[in-house]
Amino acid sequence: MSDLTPSTDPAGSQVPVVLDFWCELQCPDCLSALDDVRALRERYGDRLDVRLRHFPLEKHRHSFAAAQAAEEAVAQGAGQAYPEAVLARVRDLDRSGEPVLLEVARELGLDVDEFETALIDGRHILVVDADHAEGKAIGVTGTPTYVIGGERLDGGKSQDGLRARIEEIADRLLAGA
Description:
Radius of gyration: 17 Å
Order of helices and strands: EHEHHHHHHEEH
Helix content: 40-55%
Mean pLDDT: 90
Number of strands: 4
Structural class: alpha+beta
Number of helices: 8
Distance between the termini: 10 Å
């Protein structure tokens, strides 16, 4: 069995194809990439596991806090809604910083006190650091970057054609080729 063949669980059902979406929540290009990510989720449903991976960039001073806040959102059950809402306010985050992260949590009905505590105590730093280190190890240099079926696709320069390429790889993996 090649690593491109979708695996099955013990019950024989197909395990979803994983798409790692290396993202930075203060990145305007990642906001642009959201349309493609949403379209992929819609097309493949539970056959494609889109995983947000953190790659905070030094040039964006609030990106590390945003990544930690996204992990707190996961802990509170809003792992998809929160990063999308933060990306929708990327300009606000750039201007106003961490208060925007708390505002988004409040708007989504999350425990804002717990968000504040998480940002202070750093409980999610290891997850963010591990993602960043793994990204560097596999050659991620900017965001958005996608990894599917062992293939890295860099969307930082242009999103043109990336969704079609991801679909091509996902279709091949799902077909067992």
